[in-house]
Amino acid sequence: MKRELRNFRVKLFTEIPAVPEFLKSSYYSSLDGLRGISILIVLFAHFGVNHFLRPYQLFIDSSIGVHIFFVLSGFLITTVLLKEKIKYGRISLRQFYFRRILRIIPVVYLFLFTLVILNFCYQLKISSLDFIASFLFLKNLPVGASVFTAHLWSLAVEEQFYITFPFLLAYNVNKYTGVTVLLVTVIPLVSVLGFYFPEILFSNCNLRILTKILMYSFWKGPVIILIGSLCSILCFKGIIKVESKNSNYFSGFVLLILAIVIHTKTFAFYSKYCSEYLSACLIGYVILLGIKGKSLLSWVLDNAFLRRIGKLSYSIYIWQELFIGGLPWQPWLQSWKGIPLEVVIILKMICVFFLASASYYLVELKFLSLKQKTNYSQ
Questions:
Q1: Are 106 and 363 in contact (CB under 8 A)?
Q2: pLDDT in tens, 81-108
Q3: CA–CA separation, 184 vs 177, rounded Å?
Q4: Best CA proximity match to 329, nearest among 37, 124, 100
Q5: Which has the closest alpha carbon to 352: 109, 34, 39?
Q6: Domain limits of the chain?
Q7: Alpha carbons 165 and 176: distance in angstroms, whole number
Q8: Which of 75, 81, 151, 348 could bridge across to 228 with cysteines, CB 3.0–4.6 Å?
């Protein structure tokens, strides 16, 4: 046992020799399919599909969709940066932030400027503070309470994460690895203890405040992103190896279903924090199995429809908030009386897909073409 631990520690902090064979591609088509599943989970939860699932004691939790995005983001960004480190001997933070700006800013700022106009025309009562927090990517903090910008908390988490952590990765991969292992171990442990055994951590006022800050600021995203990042690092260091065996044909798909189920609050063995942590770890491994290919999982994720939805997923996520509930610009949805809920959901889906497609082709794609000129595109 001691020898295995020593070997693990040596591998964990050795220099990365080369890019793993199955990660050498600059584009992983199956991950677009996983994005497609993620955004459909979010839409189904937000648009009322749970109404039809209640009789069967089933429930779609939108947060699992967001968490899949978080793990994907951590994995892909780390993979791109490590490839750059191996190829050029350094990581260009200037290019990294240039790519992030081109990926994130145009669509979300277009949405916010549209919301400013709608706020003026329809008196939506969105405060100036709410707009400022949204423009500055601070919506994960308790500032502003508008439903129209509530979904931007996840973007705030990602952008705050990427303002800080890439600096450490660019400086020293092994130190980044050590910090990542520490955070994905300690923060969830503190969160679990604080939730299930408050008398242990909450006996001291200052400690109670610190614990709540850790639980609120770090668990709601950054730790999930770090799990994806750690999956990438462990692959590059040869600690995680994905084998193409017949026994793995069904395992990836089963693990994806399991990750979704155990994250759901109606699951019989659901445990706050524990389930979310385990689900994120499973998603990390699902990503690897999906990329490896030659399995039921990769066959499902390579479905043309899911990949198409996945490519639109960012625009869909940004614009879908305009179609939640009966809103002033949806007179045909203000009252659901006489309109079957199934029809309402379908109409909302059509509207959000149409708007997201326009946003993708007219705005997002223009900036992505610039992004593709800098090393890696995904």
A1: yes
A2: 999 999 999 999 999 999 999 999 999 9
A3: 11
A4: 124
A5: 39
A6: 24-371
A7: 8
A8: 75
C-alpha span between 172 and 28 (Å, rounded):
27
d(CA 40, CA 65): 8
Half-sphere exposure at residue 180, Cβ-oriented, CA atoms within 13 angstroms = 28
Asked if residues 217 and 225 have their Cβ atoms less than 8 Å apart, the reply is no
- pLDDT tens across 48-76, in order? 899 888 888 888 889 999 999 999 999 99
Rg, the chain, Cα only:
21
The type of residue at 40 is L
Task: Write down the pLDDT at residue 167.
Answer: 92
Does 124 score more than 80 pLDDT? yes
Tokens linked to 182: 């520490």
Q: What is the DSSP letter of 221?
A: T
Kindly tell me the sign of the dihedral angle through the C-alpha atoms of 89, 91, 94, 99. positive
Per-residue confidence (pLDDT) for residue 377, from 0 to 100: 47
Angle formed by the axes of helices 222-236 and 62-88, nearest 10°: 40
Among 59, 61, 95, smallest CA distance to 77 is for 95
Instruction: Tell me how far apart the alpha carbons of residues 322 and 149 are, in angstroms, rounded to a whole number.
Output: 9
Better-scored residue on pLDDT, 216 or 53: 53
Is the CB of residue 323 less than 8 Å from the CB of residue 67? no
Distance (Å, rounded) from C-alpha 42 to C-alpha 45? 5
DSSP letter string, 92-125 = -HHHHHHHHHHHHHHHHHHHHHHHHHHHHHHT--
With 0.85 as the threshold, say if the pTM is over it.
yes
Residue whose C-alpha is closest to residue 232's, from 39, 85, 36: 85
Burial class (CB in 10 A: 0-12, 13-18, 19+), 88: exposed
pLDDT digits (tens, 9 = 90+) for 246-292: 556 888 999 999 999 998 877 777 877 788 889 999 999 999 999 98
The two three-digit tokens of residue 314, written as one number: 């960012």
Q: Give the pLDDT of residue 368.
A: 81
